[in-house]
# Entry
Amino acid sequence: MKQYEDEDERLHNPSGTEPETPASSATAPRKRNAFYALSFPNYRLFFIGQSISVIGTWMQIVAQNWLVWELTHLSRWLGIVNGSNAILYILFSILGGKVADRYPRRDILVWTQAVAGLLAGILTILTFGVWVPVRVWHIVVLAGFSGVVNAFNMPAQQAFVHDMIDDKEALGNAIALNSLRFNMARFVGPMIAGIVLVKWGAKACFFINAVSFVAVIISLLRMKLPPFVSHKRDLSIKEGVSYIRQHKPTLRNVILMASGAMFVWSASTLYPVLSTFFKRGEKGYSWMTSANGIGAMLCGILLASVLEGIPTRLRIYVGAIIFGCALLLVTLAPTFEFLLCLLMISGFGMILCAASSNTAVQQGVPEHLRGRVMAVYSLSFQGVMPFGGLVAGFMADHLSAHTTLRINASLFLTIALILFAWSHREREVS
# Structure
């Protein structure tokens, strides 16, 4: 009988011994396919609503970064906007994890999406100049409030995937489809944003994003969910942190995501600078984001189908190495077209690493700890990534964008290889 090979499967077994796969899963007829999770009505509603909303979100990300660049022409301000988001996210994310374990997650998501839509609406009004001409500090403040919203939204959304799926064996497929949905939006959103930016400006992108939140709120309200079981016995974040510290595979995933967020996920902060370097303007910037999204979307499709059988641990570290190496080569790209190809490859590696890591953590975490563990896990990249963007922006002003990417990609590759060696050594010992 086949032994467990994936590192995430060892999360259930801290002693290090590797249990065998249950016979039922080995002999059951294979009813699953690449879109199996969509057969569950609640997840299907979630997938459709989020697909619409995230397209709007990516339109705002592209428009906001370009607006900041136009207002200041300083890389540091791109980092400051991301940094303001990170600071408040970090301050509130642990509380967000506790809330996700205590209150119905659907209710949390409805409120967070409504507030996020309101913030997008305020930015739209400011950009139209109804009150005062938009200033970069307006964007910084709104980005900070968005960080608070995301601190409550992300742990609830991560844990809510588990609530929507009746067959827990479909969890990995649902996470892969989430990556596919997110990265389809990363392709479509910036592509639409490039057209809208040129014709109507950033304000139109912000308005579309504000309206898009209606779709996800409607989808959430239409779901039929079982009664939520609140975990009130102990909501100390220490229990979640203790779980992560004791389960070394989860600990490695948190470290890998945090280092990726600090050094390489934040590379998108410098896209406007690279687009200007190649004299491509806002269209070039939107194409860069779209190219990265195409590679990520392709990876999401493959993860939901043919890559599912590859050991999760292998997918995590191969993805990390592809991601880091592609960004290193970006700094040597002789033409804009070659740059786009490398960004596609980096997007593929990014999602191969991130989605596989998410699956590993989600499949192992006990239900009563899910919100708090996912809060720490989300903090490891959502909270760190804007801070990484802040540092990258200041570094680019002093060292150039290309030098910054070389340093950051090299550091990430070093950490990934160290973690892989640690993982391999632990498996040999056990």
